[in-house]
Specification:
The protein is built from 8 helices and 7 strands, in the order E-H-E-H-E-H-E-H-E-H-E-H-H-H-E. By secondary structure, it is an alpha/beta fold. The protein folds into 2 domains: about 200 residues, Rossmann fold (3-Layer(aba) Sandwich); about 30 residues, no CATH class. It has a 7-stranded parallel β-sheet, sandwiched between helices. Helix 4 links the parallel strand 4 and strand 5. The protein is globular, with a radius of gyration of 17 Å. The protein starts with 7 loop residues before the first strand and ends in a 6-residue tail after the last strand. The model has no long low-confidence stretch (mean pLDDT about 95).
Length: about 250
Amino acid sequence: MNLLDGRVALITGGSKGIGKEIARTFSSQRATVYIIDLDEKALNETKEEFANDGLEIATFKVNVCDKEKIDDTFQQIANKHGNMDILVNNAGVIRDNLFFKMTEEDWDTVMNVHVKGSYFCSQIAQKYMVREQYGRIINISSTSALGKRGQANYSTAKAGIQGFTKTLAIELGRYGITVNAIAPGFIETEMTKATAKRLGLDFEDLIERNKNTIPVGRTGKPADIANAALFFALEASSFVSGQVLYVAGGPRT
């Protein structure tokens, strides 16, 4: 299908997990896709994997906390295509610990990547979107925004992303730009594998433990989030903005 034909999309943290699946989905819908990430090896592997599947993407090694590099990268893309239509703020890290043991570095690292990174990327991308009077900004939040033991930093960042989303929707709507967020529940990714390791659990045991708490009776896959992102990215979704969609197999809020 060609639901995003002619659109230019950029996904941060796109070399693995949810970001990678969003890139795959957008590319399969004929978007021109760019992914940025810090992991150069994963970027190269993803680009090769997609090429083997007949999908073409372009990659940049960029830190979302480096405003100057973000500005330069986005300008290169906009200069080449004349527009930047879709931004997915997906880049993220975890530094889990109980609050009384959480270090300032743990706190700052998570806040910088999730919140400051989304701020930098959105502020720069919206310049091109406003010029074209069209844009889609999709932020990745989390059900952890509702609170989760051992994730005071991550939960705070993801709750902040939701407020950020709603405010940008108010400010940018008049320019044809929609801003929405997706709050994934338990999704089987490298990040949740890291959580299992932190808890001293086998990953399959963690999956089973979570499956029993999810109304639909299964844990999520990256494709579940990519499908939600595709909905928000569509031109036809122009009257949907400022929303937080919980993709968690059942109600969360």
